[in-house]
Records
---
Amino acid sequence: MRRSLALLAGGLLVGALAAPASAADGDQDFTIKDSRITESSGLAASRQHPGIYWTHNDSDDGAFLYAIDSATGQTVATVTMTGVGTPRDIEAISIGPNNQIYVGDIGDNDGVTWDHVWIYQLTEPKVLKNRTIRATQYVVKYSDGSRDAESLVVHPKTGRVYIIDKQEDGGHLYAGPARLSSSGTNVFRPVAAVDMWATDAAFSPDGRQLAVRGYFGGVSYAWNGGKLKRQGQLDVPLQQQGESVTYSRDGSKIMYGSEGAQSGVEAEDAPSYGKSGDSDSASGNGSSASGSGEGGGSEGNVRNGAIAVGVLFIAYLGLKRLRRRPSS
């Protein structure tokens, strides 16, 4: 009986310690191991495939997207986009409603010379395997002239597409039309200032927060109907070349990626700011920075801590009783 108690306690302890490390859910650090991926410039968590992250190389790679299993770091599917011509500088990827993948061929860092850039849209495959998918190509222009940009986000509720331009002294959030058109030019207009030299951005899964990262830092904004309200700084890890960001599938973590061979993706707890600011209309309200939010408040931490202490105590008693047994 005592041995059974000790074994039970040990099993509970192992289970309690292993529970947070849910690599299958894609909320842990991982390394991209595909030797073809040397300039991972965008990152997006799959909604329908837990633990899968989509990424792509920067320029000069072609129209390829890679599905990475965060549990292993290996590529489980390569998608070749057709119908998009030759990409110039793919910098961002985002997943919108109905599992629609949006790819931003929006980089223009060689003198800001392009009079237009492109966005590609395709449906995320239900089965992950190597395949070719025809994408829809959209022509994009900015209302105030050419821009260099590395951040493209799609609101998870409305599907509206936004771009943040990349400027050292801070840029702007540009809103596209309510629905993109494949037959004409889509004009993006500035709607809010962004005080970050942005290399990528991401919406929280509920659309209430916008995370914007740079090389050495990041800012969290309440979406506030597109009238951004700064909430605080993000805990951006120090990386060789911080390029990409996405929320994990459940929104509990923010995942930060970098460029380079065997590049790492690091997970940090997503900040919690309450539940307002989720409207995608101009009348949205601001968000409070004092709210506990969902899934990460102090109450949950205390409860988890109490469970862990209890398990440790049971394990201690079981092992202590086991040592007291006389040898046979």
---
Amino acid sequence: MIRAVAVIVPVHDEESLLGACLASVSAAVVQLRAERPEIACSVWAVLDSCTDRSAAIAAEAGAEIVTVTARNVGRARTAGWEAARRAFADVDAAEFWTAHTDADSAVPPHWLVHQIELADAGADVIIGTVRPDFRDLDAMRTQAWWRRYTPGAANDAVHGANLGLRADVLAAAGGFPPLAEHEDVELVAAARKRGATVALSDDAWVRTSGRQTGRTPGGYARYLRDDLLSERG
């Protein structure tokens, strides 16, 4: 059974979206505490080379703050979960859950409750779905997205914006690799190779930014900009 949860949010200059992200995470924490009061829970914002108001926004939201200067999301995620692990050193790693999202995303209120339910049922890793903020997309991309994806149908696409892992599985897989992108995909692949039980779910999908200029050349922004219209639904 899970005894503690840490939500890890890497941040690089996200002042326009971070407040909404952390508000959504706070709502998920409130629901988890209401339904599972025996589980300790904390939120960790990892400020990576931020030059805007992200630090102030994270502090105002009451998040635990870790500061790095890596400009690397893999290193930022690692700094966050390792700090959280130290804070809960008295909790066995198999009973410590790490939930991951991104600073440009918003989770639903039942996000953490859903992850813990799946973890209690035996999942070591949870791959959740995401949906872009359709206000950021033009009509062609919006239509193309709905042709590709069916609400309620889970898929095997790994997104750091909606991911959960037991701490012992995360550590055994080598942690997040120090990559500027696709660190989430590589981590899950490593966990699978070690025999981790992986659950796929669309029941707590996360809304993420539909921007098409991202922090790195690849990633979801590139997918929305270049790949989505080239795919055949």
---
Amino acid sequence: MAADKPAQSNLEKYAAPKNPALPKSTMKLDLSRTALVVIDPQIDFMSPKGKAWPMTGESVTEQNLVPNLLRLFKAAKAANMTVAVSPHWYWGTDHNWKIQAPVEAMQHSMKLFDDRKNELDVAGFENSGSDFMPEFKPYIMDGKTFLCSPHKLYGPQVNDLNLQLRKQLVDQVILTGMLANLCVESHMRELLEQGFEVAVVRDAVAGPKLPEGDGYMAAIINYRFMANAVWTTDEVVAMMEGKA
């Protein structure tokens, strides 16, 4: 995967409007009550070795996603911030669901995040598509990051993310990860409904690109309408370092 940022012309279609109608964000971070939340930082989504790379690779590369997330992990840990990961894993019994929407059916057919027999068996997990990107593992597996139970569809309603954040007196969330228009957007919506102040890092998320549409484009519009802030990695790192 190319680490260099793409030419600006490639990203013009995602640029913020020159004359926005909506008011500017008033969100100000208080790092003592802020968490970096990373959704699905897993090989199947973010690596050329992953099963979903044919549909995610272009967006991951355009957004410089992996290097940007690595910067955010480093800065959050240096600032002693709360960090939480909301992963996506399937067990064998999940494939017997009798109701599936199109993306669910696609993920099951591709066997995404499907490298463990059940929640108690970790055989086959290490370095599989379900595993975390190796660049991130030192920060995820440091004994301080909250590794939440898996979300099975898109949002955190069925995992323990909200509980873990509330137990740390967190009410501000910096949201990153994948997929932009599915899990990231669903997490954003639920966290907003639960009373959190939510900022999305626009170049630390990426989405699928399929004949049905550009997932990143679908998401960035809704982020602008609903998130308390839409920031860049540079902006967020500067805040974490106390420079903004």
---
Amino acid sequence: MVSRHDVRVSGVPGAQPLVLAHGFGCDQHMWRLVAPHFEDAFTVVTFDHVGAGGSDASAYDPVRHGSLQGYADDVLAIVRELDLRDVVLVGHSVSAMVAVLAAVAEPDRFAKLVLVAPSPRYVDDDGYTGGFTEADIAELLDSLDSNYLGWSSTMAPVIMGNPDRPELGAELTASFCRADPEIARRFARVTFLSDNRADLAAVTTPTLVLQCTDDVIAPVSVGEHVRDAIPGAQMVLLDATGHCPHLSAPEATTAAIAAFLRD
């Protein structure tokens, strides 16, 4: 699993592990502005989901990876292979729910969860605002299926936000375009059609929700839903816009995580 997911380990050997899981269309490189701040006190682990970054795309299994549980099983396999315990698991975007599923499956292995811009369901439902209608998601997936590169160049800057800093949108676009397009299409379908609201109440691991003030993918109300549904969860509203605060506001993101870990 270490080779398959291009796992990188840095920081203090034998210290408490801090595992960073990237979101859809991203890879572990997206953590480069956050990870170094924890290397003086933690064993920092980054990796790529199958189909992203330096992962082995041939390891993609349509059945295993046909649900977010399969991606959670990958995370669990990595931490088992590295024999990691007392793990702080940080998940961005869809990997926030991957982190939830991993912690529910093996709660004794995890010390804390940090969910960055999480969403348990993207589609609106009765009494729940996910931010998208069913028609919105159908159109998004159709566009992605028909022209993945075109979709990436259009959507990445929107997802990133911060139009005054176009280099951020360009970086996310490039990341989307590096991903294996066929796996990315399938991962998008798994991501945007997921509904993990029922899993939140089963989390027993102390949890921090990091929410941006203006996120087109995961509105503030979604972050509040996650906070309220996970017993004892905390939420920090970052002074940041867009869906990727670890890139657009790494100082605020790092400070919020560090404060949570000190508690």
